[in-house]
Each structure stands twice: as C-alpha cells, then as structure tokens.
Write a structure and sequence with these properties.
The protein is mainly α and 296 residues long. The protein contains 13 helices and no strands. The longest helix has 38 residues.
C-alpha cells in the first residue's frame, strides 16, 4: 500500500512537468479535430434518430410531459442531444486512452526511467507490435462488454458504476503492459502483472472513476449544448490529463516493482556449483592407488 501511495504522489508531481503538459496537446488536437469532424457530418442525423427512437417509448414521453408541467420544458429540446453525448462518451474515453498510450506513454515511461531508474537495465520484453496488438485486443474486449452492458445503464446506479469499471480494467491492461514493455523481460512482465494484479487493477479502477469526472459536464443541460464548442475540448483535455496521470502512476509503480524484483536474487543463483569428486593422487608407478588396498 505504501508503494501505491508513493507512486500516486510521484505521478501527480510529474503531471505538472512541462514536458507532460506539452505531450498532452497532441492527443487533444487529434481528438478535438476528430470530434468536430464527426459532429459536422453526423450530429444532426444522430440527434434526429435518437429523438425518433425516444418517441416510440411512452414512458419517456410521459417523463418529458411531466418536465413541461413542472416548468422544465426546455429539457425536452436538449434531451436527445444529451443522450447522443452520453452514448458517445465511452467512445471518446476509449480513443483518448489509446491516443495517450500511443503518443504519450512511451515518452513518459522513458522520462521516469531516466530520472528515477537510471540504473535499471532495459530488456525490451515487449515490442511495439506486441504492445499495439495487446492494446487493440483489450480495447475490443472492453467495447464488447460496454455494448452488452448498455441496457443496464438505464438502472440509475449502474450507469455510474459499470462504465468506470470497464474503463478501469482497460486502463490496467494497457498501461501496466506499456510501463514494463521497455525495461522488463517477458517473464518479468508476466510475473509482476501476476503478483501485483490486485494493486494494478485497483489503480486502473480509480483511474477509470477519475476519467468519468468530465462526464459531469453533460449534466449542465442546455447550457452545455450552447457552450459545446468550448466545453468539448475542455472535457477531452481533462480525459487526456487523467490518462496521462494514470500512465505515470503505472510507470512509477511498475518500475519500482521491477527494481525490487531484480534485487531479490534467488539463492540458487548465488550458491556455488557442486564440486567434482576429487581424484586420488597417482602412486609411485604413475597409477592411482587402489582405495581398497591402500592402508589408512
């Protein structure tokens, strides 16, 4: 637990490093450009489709009529756009995570390694191809689970529990692997991820809940829709910084665990090899004496 908190505070300090702040702008620019590009081409169609889908549900229309009766009729106009944003949020989060892992994590792990673990040997147990396949496979599995769990989001408590848990699991899978890919061998990486699975998964889940924080912006309703050109980039940048922090947290924790692992040298590696049996000295004639006939 002490290692968990130590890595946490180190990651917080590293987050304000100018290099980390500068690195965060590349995923931000890519995500903002992608978001506004998709919004330009698909926003109106998506909102119209969701509005038509909502009209088919009598319970939803009853709820919207009740909002009009209590003086909150303006929410009817923003209900469909907000629902589109809520449904798009998991995709935005997943893309932010992958962009941080691709464009920020290698540089941040290298920075942590140079500044804190300069003497740690780099065994390159995970290549770029393996890292990409690992991240894509984990992301695909997370997307499948997200889609299957969407009907449960209609239950109010579960919409605040399930997505962050899924994001947290994906954060653990991607950032724990990338943190050890350069410094650890394949066997060392597997050993650390097995022995520290509980702590690493807890770090991922906490990071997932931190990553859900920008979703609170959607609760501003009509004001958010009006200020979307400003608030969307802000939300995406918060996502980026949260996952940058998570990446640094995993880097500090995993490299410290690797350093301690290598410091524990097994006994069999330092014990001397068994000596070969000593041959008796040759006798006067040049032949070894017979131990059965030689006097004690």
């Amino acid at each position: 637990m002490s290692q968990l908190f130590d890595s946490f505070w180190r990651a917080v300090v590293y987050c304000v490093h100018p290099r980390v702040i500068a690195l965060s702008f590349l995923p931000l620019i890519l995500m903002v450009a992608l978001s506004f590009g998709l919004g330009y081409f698909f926003w109106e169609g998506a909102v119209a489709s969701v509005a038509a889908w909502l009209e088919a549900f009598g319970m939803v229309q009853t709820f919207l009529s009740w909002l009009e009766q209590v003086g909150a009729g303006s929410l009817r106009m923003v209900f469909a756009p907000l629902l589109v944003l809520v449904l798009a949020t998991p995709l935005i989060v997943l893309l932010c995570l992958l962009l941080v892992a691709m464009f920020m994590t290698p540089a941040m792990v290298d920075m942590v390694g140079q500044r804190r673990f300069a003497g740690l040997e780099r065994k390159h147990g995970g290549s770029l191809v393996v890292s990409v396949l690992w991240s894509l496979g984990s992301t695909l599995l997370a997307v499948v689970v997200l889609v299957l769990s969407m009907p449960l989001w209609l239950v109010p408590p579960l919409v605040l529990i399930l997505p962050p848990l899924i994001w947290g699991w994906l954060t653990y899978r991607v950032f724990a692997f990338d943190a050890l890919a350069t410094h650890a061998s394949s066997d060392e990486r597997k050993m650390i991820m097995r022995e520290h699975r509980g702590s690493l998964l807890l770090m991922g889940v906490l990071s997932g809940y931190l990553g859900a924080a920008p979703s609170l912006l959607w609760a501003s309703g009509a004001m958010f829709i009006a200020m979307a050109p400003v608030l969307v980039p802000v939300a995406i940048w918060i996502y980026t910084l949260v996952f940058a922090f998570a990446s640094l947290w995993f880097a500090h924790y995993s490299l410290a665990a690797l350093q301690r692992l290598r410091a524990k040298v097994p006994v069999e590696m330092v014990s001397p090899e068994p000596h070969a049996p000593l041959m008796p000295l040759p006798g006067p004639t040049g032949t070894p004496p017979n131990p059965l006939t030689t006097d004690p």
